[in-house]
Amino acid sequence: MVAVRGAGSARWAGTALAVLFPFVLAGCGVKEEEPVPARPVRVAAVSFTDAHAERSFTGIVVPRTEVQAGFRVGGRIATRLVEVGDRVKPGQVLARLDSTDLELALKGAEARLAQAEAQATQTAANLKRYTPLLASGTVSQAQFDQVKAASDAAAAQKREAESSLAIARNQRSYSALTLEQGGVITAVLADAGQTVSEGQTVLRIATDQGREVAIDVAEGDVARLTVGGAATIALWADGDIALTGTLREITPVADPASRTFRLRVTLPADAPDTVRLGLTARVSFPDANSPALALLPSAALFQQGDKPAVWVLAPSKDRVQLRPVEVAAYRPDGVAVKAGLKEGELVVTAGAHRLDANLRVRVWDGGLP
After folding, report:
1. Cα angle at 187 between 98 and 198, to 5 degrees?
2. What's the Rg (C-alpha) of the chain?
3. Which of 2, 105, 200, 299 is the most exposed, having the fewest neighbouring CB atoms within 10 Å of its CB?
């Protein structure tokens, strides 16, 4: 009986240990490893396009020529006949000086000419009388030479007086400010009652010789542009206006402060009047020799040593691969890549520094994790 009870107890104890063993192991901290969830990544498809091969620059619409108009003589401005924004015609009087002093100077020149003419007439008559007397020996050669010299001097003084009178007449006409070219008044720098010096700027006028866009180009880009090349011009104020211009001028010397070159792009002659002076314009130059580029967000770039790289989604869609790339340009709107990627590949565009080639990933669908 005792043996039987012992065997039954042994069987019962073995069964209990088999049942309790997993719980004992769990109590000791031994757990099965749970799978690491796939990390969501945001991706974008690679797309190469020639549109990024254009070089675009921002500039200002300016007149091709601008005149700094001023009087050719000094004096007090009596009246100003134009205002800013007025359109003027060639030969139109824009302002006038007080011509009182100029009129007096003209009268003085006329009086000096009359005196010189009288003197020239008298000396010429004396010379005419002395000529036959010299031939008959009545007067000496020295006396005749003295009379002839006086006649020559009087004639020279007459010519000088005539020139002075012409100058005085011109100066009187200079009291009216006119231009040989038409245009638009862009600035008024002196007003009636103000005394101005000779040549001092009174009005600034944009002539009717055409409008242009002035842009500043860095020295790395100016070497790729040539005078006579075509350009596309778009206005920021009116996106519906698209014009085709021509690169007319490249300054030969860079600005010492900004180290940029000033370029002038001519607008077409039929440009609408809405293209006003001072408007902001964007000028684009096509580059047929530039390769197609893929524009990626700056956050997609990963530094592999000293070379740039990006994470590309593997064909299995659950891993990423680090791919070296060749960057064409770092732009305000992203990174322009010209080599290292294929059309249609998916590139991780955010969190590139947190990825690993062995990490499981999934394409983020935009929802919460």
Report:
1. 40
2. 46
3. 2
pTM: 0.57
- Tell me the domain boundaries of the chain: 41-53+291-363, 55-97+177-286, 100-173
100-173 matches 41-53+291-363 in CATH topology: no
Tens digits of per-residue pLDDT, 300-352?
888 777 888 888 888 887 888 888 888 877 777 788 888 888 888 888 887 77
- CATH architecture under which domain 55-97+177-286 falls: Beta Barrel (2.40)
DSSP bridge partners of 213? 61, 265
Q: Please, what's the b/e burial string for 327-344 (b: 16 or more CB within 10 A of its CB; e: otherwise)? A: bbeeeeebbbbbebbeee
Structure tokens at 143: 């006396």
Tokens of 235: 């206005």
At residue 220, φ and ψ (nearest 5 deg) are -75, -20
Q: Residue 71: name the closest of 196, 206, 241, 163 by CA.
A: 196
User: Which amino acid appears at position 323 of this protein?
Assistant: R
Token pair, residue 2, equals: 């005792």
Residue 24 scores a pLDDT above 80: no
249: β partners: 264
Tokens in use for 8?
């039954």
Q: Are 121 and 152 contacting, i.e. CB atoms less than 8 angstroms apart? A: no
- Identify the residue whose tokens are 């006579």: 228
Backbone dihedral angles phi then psi of residue 358, each to the nearest 5 degrees: -90, 0
Q: Which of 209, 211, 205 is closest to 178 using CA atoms?
A: 205
Q: Which CATH architecture has domain 41-53+291-363?
A: Beta Barrel (2.40)
Q: At what angle do helices 100-136 and 141-173 cross, to 10 degrees?
A: 160
Q: What is the pLDDT of residues 35-57, one digit of tens each?
A: 667 777 778 888 877 644 567 89
Give one DSSP letter per residue of 43-97, joined into a string. EEE--EEGGGG-EEEEEEEEES-EEEEE-SS-EEEEEE---TT-EE-TT---EEE
Tell me, what amino acid is at 321?
A: Q
